[in-house]
Each structure stands twice: as structure tokens, then as C-alpha cells.
Specification:
heterodimer; A: 342 residues; mainly alpha; 16 helices; 2 strands; B: 300 residues; ABC transporter involved in vitamin B12 uptake, BtuC; two-stranded antiparallel ribbon; two-stranded antiparallel sheet; 4 strands; globular
């Protein structure tokens, strides 16, 4: 009797927590990678490149929001703060000191992580809405401060000088969007790697425990507040990298663009739409919303600037009421049911 | 009397300016308080933060504006109409949205009202363009002078109306049977349900009353403030600070907090810098969160 129980236990323990992906998934993964790498060579139009770059950029933002909301269960409504910090950190270093944006990228990420800690330590020990409101207030405060800060160009922002001789060192490419395409794809892949890795490490496991059962996690000796702060720091650093990339892509930044509340809204929406806490949900959200946004802006022209936001708002509402786990769960639940019946 | 200013220490300013700032801060604070109390009431009842609160304020300002443009009804007279319209919005919000997410995780609760806010704000921009509008010569206009202090008459009337609405709300909640049922639901919804209180209807009532308060503040504001689709954001942010300061769910806390915020904002604008006055108020939120997260009067 005791033996049987012991073998059952050891069998259960030896079973991998994350089952190996079925071969079908691996083939699909390889096909996706090949398709994404070949895409810009097949579709050579500038707009088709731009669209994909925007999708990758927003997928990074969504993954960043996914880390704080999906992995630790806290809702940030001011994620534009980190986007702006990343954009400004690299731009200011480049324009004022001539430091390459690659260093600016790291500087922005470090600053963002520190700022995230400074916000998170007092607010993340309280209940969730305190944190949500704090981030909303800080996101808007950052926009106000940068609009009035003369040294960084106040409301008119920063124009990056054109540099043609050393495109890789200066992180700016003229005439072709190909380098931007592959860089954004690389950044996007890295952001996926962070989430993939987090889901499989002890830190990620503890974060999930903190999200789902804070009391139980605390009783097991997990420092709940500190884990949320760490998640927020990682999330802030990721958003900051997206900001730096955006600054180097458009080469003109101003507070209304990079600290806009709309960026925080977008990050939230892509994740909630696709599936919070999942690896592929944010990408799905970005792949649906960014083309929608680009096309409504083309169809409705200047005045249609808000049509996409109306649709977004209604979409969030519907998702929250009818499918709070996101669109991806429609697929995964069906797959799981099929696997169970087999 | 001579008061030194922080940005320009060599300029001396008269105490009149300070008193002026106190009076206008007080009057504005009453409006903030009425906006905040709606938020606080809704939170106290069902622990849901209404992120669309500012957008409902904006809607009520537009209601009042269009009633003036199309029917010629003054904002002061259209208060009951706007309040009724917003109360209906409150019922609709509860039965259409909030009711379905009461038991949902916090993520869905926050995102739902946030999504509603985005939809309403963008729809307003689409329908009415982002232009700033004002109501020309309303019933009460101009200003009165008392001992060198100027008080805008619309602001004075707005402050008085808001104070009256506050007293009415307080009497309703503490003196009537429905009000007591509302309080009981806020304290313990299961116990209230056992006692035969229809909690779902109480929640809907909470939304209706909360948004009616916003409507009163909105119609009063429209008489002297710009009406535009983004107008709600700043008021909502101040209301969040007020609710944190006064304590989530406390009515009297909202009044005290709203007035304090009005004072801090207007004194901060005069003494420190007008362009950072909202940042000074936001700073209050962090002071509260760090020192006394339950607020001045509130429960956790």
C-alpha cells in the first residue's frame, strides 16, 4: 500500500511540469519563424514593412504589460511612463552627449526599472486599485512634467540629428526599413523569451502563486509585495526598450506622443483581448489591433482618429464581460477539450 | 501683510491674493467633493472603482451645454433633467456592465470601466470634435466684490448647489430607510441580503445616485468652465485623489478631501507654480498612500 502510494508520488514528481510541445506545434513554430524572416523579402512595400514593425513594437509593449498584469495580477494604467522614459533616455543621451542609442537603450531600461521600484514599493503592498490609480496619476504627471521641461525641449520635444555614416552605431537607418524590421523582430522575440522564461523559472512560478493565491503564497514564505515589485521592474524595463526603439524609428519625439495615455490603453487592450498571462495572447492582440488601427485611420481620414478607440473601448468591455480570459482561450479551451476526449 | 512667493522671493504679494485663492479653492473644492462622493459611494457599495467617472462628468456637461444651445435652458435650471439622464446612465451601466463583472477578477473589473471610459470619450470626440465650447451669458454671471475679494457668481452658486446636494445626499443616506439599506449593503452585502434587502437593486441605486451627483457637479461646471471631450480626465484624477484621501467609501471623507484638494490646488497654484498645481495634488495621493492608506476617515 505504502509502496504503491510512493511510486505514484514519484511518478507524479518525475512528470515534467510543462509537457513537451506536440510536434504539430513545433512545425508551426518553425513555419512562423521562416515566414516572419522571409516576409520583408516577399512584400517589399514600405507600408507592409511599417505595418509589421508596428505590430512587433506593440507586441513588445503588450508583453511588457503582460508581465505585470498577467504574471503578478496588478493593473498598470500608466505604462506610457516607461515608454516615454525609454524614448527620452536614449534621445537625450544621443543629442546632448553623443552617446550611442544602444547605451541609451540600457540606460533607459535601468532608469525605468528604478522608477518602477520607486512606484511599486509603496503602492504594491496595498490592494490593487491603489496601484492602478497611482500608475494612472504618474503616467499623466510624467506627460505634464516633460511638456514643461525646457532642457529636453518642452512641448516641442527632441529631433534626432540625421547620421548616415554609421547606421548601426547611431541606430538609425535611412532609405530602407529592413534593419528596423529585423531589429523589431529581434526585440519582440526577446520580449517573448522573457515571458517564456518567466513562466518556467522559480521566480515565474512564485509570481503565479502570488497572483492566484496571495495568502497561500505568503504562508509559504513568499514575499508577495517584493515579487510584485520585481515583476513591475521587469515590465517597466521591457516597455522602455520599446520606447527607445520607437524614438530611433521615428527620430522625432515629443511628450504628447511618447507619454500619451493612449499607449497605456493600447498595451492593456492588446493583452486583455488576446489573453492575459498567456505567451501568445499579447501577440494575437497586437496582430488584430494594429492593422485595425492603421486601416481605420486610412479609411476615416483625420477625423477618424478616434474611431479605432471607440472600437477598442467597446472591445475591452465585451471581452471583460463575456470572455475575461481573452480570445486565445477560445482556441486553447477547444484544443484541451479535444485532447481530453482522445 | 506681505507674503513671499517661492518662485520670485523678492516680489511681495498682498494677503488679498492668498484670501482670494482660499475662497476660489474652497468653491472649486465643493465641486471636486461632489464628483468624488459619487466615486466613493460606488466603491463603498461594491468595491468597484469607476474609471469612467470623469467621462460621465463630461457627458453631463455636454448634456447641459446642448440643453442650453438647443432649448435655451440655463444650466442652473437643467440640473434635474441632467441628473435624471445621468441616473438612467447609472442604471444602464449597472445592469448592462457592472452586474456581470461583480464576481470577476479585479483585472476584468478595472478594464471594463476603463474600456467604457475610452469608448465614451472617443465617441464624444467623434460626435462633437475635440473643440472647446462655452456657454455664453448664463443666468448667473459676473462677479461680486466683498472687501477686495472677487468671487465669480457662477462659482459661488455652483459651490452652494454642491453643498446643498451634499447635505441632501447625507440626509438621504443617514435618515431614510432606503439610505440605511444602502449603508447596510455597503457594510456587508451577504448579511444585507439575508435581511431581505435587494442588494442588486441597491447597487443599481448606488450607480444612479453616484452619477446623479456627478450630473449636478457637471451642470454647474458647464456654466463657467470649458466643455470638451477630455474635460473629465483631470476631474476624475482629482476625484481619485479625493477618494484615497477621504477613504474609499466614506461620504463625509469625500467632502473634507474635496475641499482640501481645492485649497491645495489653488494655494499651490499661487504660492508654487500654476503649471504644476495638478502635480501638487497628485503628490497628495502618494503622501496618503505612504502615510495612511485608509485615508482620513475611511475603512481599508
Amino acid at each position: 500500500m505504502a509502496d504503491a502510494r510512493q511510486t505514484a508520488l514519484s511518478e507524479a514528481l518525475s512528470e515534467p511540469v510543462w509537457p513537451a510541445s506536440p510536434p504539430l506545434f513545433r512545425i508551426a513554430g518553425v513555419a512562423l519563424a521562416v515566414a516572419l524572416l522571409a516576409y520583408p523579402l516577399v512584400f517589399t512595400g514600405t507600408f507592409s514593412h511599417h505595418l509589421m514593425i508596428m505590430i512587433f513594437l506593440h507586441a513588445i509593449m503588450a508583453q511588457s504589460w503582460n508581465v505585470i498584469a498577467g504574471m503578478s495580477g496588478q493593473i498598470s494604467l500608466g505604462h506610457s511612463l516607461f515608454f516615454g522614459l525609454g524614448a527620452y533616455a536614449s534621445a537625450v543621451l544621443y543629442v546632448k552627449l553623443g552617446v550611442t542609442p544602444w547605451v541609451g537603450l540600457v540606460a533607459g531600461m535601468s532608469i525605468s526599472a528604478l522608477v518602477a521600484a520607486a512606484i511599486g514599493i509603496p503602492t504594491l503592498r496595498l490592494r490593487g486599485h491603489y496601484f492602478a490609480i497611482a500608475t494612472l496619476l504618474i503616467g499623466i504627471s510624467a506627460q505634464i512634467i516633460f511638456q514643461r521641461w525646457e532642457w529636453v525641449g518642452a512641448a516641442s520635444g527632441i529631433w534626432m540629428p540625421i547620421e548616415r555614416n554609421n547606421p548601426w552605431l547611431a541606430f538609425q537607418f535611412h532609405g530602407t526599413k529592413l534593419p528596423y524590421y529585423y531589429l523589431s523582430l529581434l526585440f519582440c522575440t526577446l520580449s517573448f523569451a522573457v515571458v517564456w522564461f518567466l513562466q518556467r523559472t522559480r521566480l515565474g512560478m512564485r509570481l503565479l502563486a502570488v497572483r492566484d493565491e496571495p495568502e497561500a503564497a505568503a504562508s509559504l514564505g513568499i514575499d508577495v509585495a517584493w515579487h510584485k515589485v520585481v515583476a513591475f521592474m521587469i515590465s517597466g524595463a521591457m516597455m522602455s526598450a520599446a520606447g527607445t526603439f520607437f524614438a530611433q524609428y521615428v527620430l522625432v519625439i515629443d511628450p504628447d506622443r511618447v507619454f500619451n495615455l493612449e499607449l497605456s490603453v493600447l498595451a492593456l487592450l492588446m493583452v486583455v483581448l488576446g489573453g492575459t498571462g498567456t505567451l501568445w495572447g499579447p501577440a494575437l492582440g497586437a496582430a488584430i489591433l494594429i492593422p485595425l488601427s492603421e486601416f481605420t485611420r486610412t479609411w476615416f481620414g483625420g477625423t477618424g482618429g478616434t474611431v479605432d478607440l471607440i472600437i477598442y473601448g467597446i472591445l475591452i468591455l465585451l471581452i471583460c464581460i463575456y470572455q475575461p480570459r481573452g480570445l486565445l482561450s477560445l482556441v486553447t479551451e477547444r484544443l484541451r477539450r479535444r485532447v481530453d476526449t482522445l | 501683510m506681505c507674503v513671499k512667493l517661492l518662485p520670485q522671493p523678492d516680489i511681495c504679494m498682498s494677503s488679498d491674493v492668498i484670501i482670494q485663492a482660499i475662497v476660489s479653492g474652497l468653491l472649486m473644492g465643493l465641486i471636486y467633493a461632489l464628483v468624488a462622493v459619487g466615486l466613493s459611494l460606488i466603491f463603498g457599495l461594491m468595491e468597484i472603482v469607476n474609471f469612467a467617472h470623469g467621462e460621465f462628468l463630461m457627458l453631463s456637461m455636454f448634456f447641459s451645454f446642448w440643453l442650453w444651445v438647443l432649448v435655451g435652458l440655463d444650466p442652473l435650471l437643467s440640473i434635474p433633467l441632467v441628473a435624471a439622464a445621468l441616473a438612467i446612465c447609472g442604471f444602464a451601466t449597472h445592469y448592462g456592465i457592472v452586474r456581470h463583472i461583480l464576481k470577476a477578477p479585479m483585472l476584468a473589473q478595472i478594464c471594463a470601466t476603463f474600456g467604457l471610459a475610452i469608448a465614451i470619450r472617443s465617441l464624444a470626440q467623434f460626435l462633437w470634435t475635440p473643440d472647446f465650447r462655452t456657454i455664453q451669458d448664463p443666468l448667473v454671471a459676473g462677479r461680486i466684490e466683498i472687501g477686495g475679494i472677487f468671487i465669480g457668481q457662477p462659482q459661488l452658486v455652483a459651490g452652494l448647489v454642491c453643498l446643498t446636494a451634499f447635505i441632501g445626499l447625507w440626509l438621504f443616506v443617514s435618515r431614510t430607510e432606503t439610505g440605511l439599506a444602502l449603508q447596510a449593503t455597503a457594510q456587508d452585502r451577504e448579511a444585507a441580503a439575508v435581511m431581505g434587502i435587494p442588494t442588486d437593486r441597491m447597487f443599481a441605486l448606488g450607480w444612479a445616485i453616484g452619477l446623479a451627483c456627478v450630473a449636478v457637479a457637471g451642470s454647474m461646471l458647464s456654466a463657467f468652465y470649458f466643455v470638451f471631450p477630455d474635460v473629465g480626465i483631470n476631474f476624475a484624477l482629482l476625484a481619485f485623489v479625493a477618494v484615497a484621501l477621504g477613504g474609499f467609501g466614506s461620504i463625509m471623507g469625500s467632502l473634507a478631501a474635496g475641499i482640501s484638494i481645492g485649497l491645495v490646488e489653488s494655494l499651490g497654484g499661487v504660492l508654487i507654480s500654476p503649471s504644476y498645481k495638478s502635480l501638487i495634488v497628485f503628490g497628495l495621493y502618494f503622501a496618503v498612500v505612504l502615510i495612511r492608506p485608509t485615508g482620513l476617515f475611511g475603512r481599508y
